[in-house]
Design goal:
five-stranded mixed β-sheet; seven-stranded antiparallel β-sheet; mainly beta; 146 residues
């Protein structure tokens, strides 16, 4: 019995790390942080930023008017919080979700960050389709200079 409990604990811990190979339907991606000078210059490639561990908040699809914004930071989100997950130290995250449309926010120093919108004013949208994984990389760039 103790061996079975240990086995289940290991499986749970591995699943909790949200490795994308375990998720068959949902969202996966990487979280990056850009700070400092990202001004383009000859012979200098900017790169995606530094991979970071952050909490990712998944809400039902949220329009601009359904949240209070201060730049790229949001609070008072009026749609339903569906799930939260944590990216690992390499920035990787994956979370199983049912088919639907969602808005993805990243916790950045206790503030919810999102810097992408679709043509309809939805915040950082992503659609999950049946039996597929949607990629959603997120770059926190509020402290970067371009």
């Amino acid at each position: 019995m103790k061996k079975m409990l240990l086995l289940y604990s290991i499986i749970f811990a591995y699943t909790y790390t949200n490795q994308s190979g375990l998720v068959k339907q949902g969202i996966s991606g990487k979280v990056y942080l850009k700070q400092g000078n990202y001004m383009p210059s000859p012979g200098k490639k900017a790169g995606p930023g530094q991979a970071v561990s952050r909490t990712i908040w998944i809400y039902r699809l949220t329009a601009r008017e359904q949240a209070r914004a201060s730049g790229s930071y949001f609070d008072h989100i009026q749609t339903k919080l569906v799930a939260k997950t944590q990216s690992d130290s390499e920035g990787n995250y994956a979370i199983a979700l049912p088919p639907g449309k969602y808005s993805v926010f990243v916790d950045d120093n206790s503030l919810l960050y999102a810097n992408s919108f679709d043509g309809k004013g939805n915040i950082n949208p992503v659609e999950v389709k049946k039996d597929s994984i949607s990629n959603k990389d997120i770059t926190i760039s509020s402290q970067a200079v371009y």
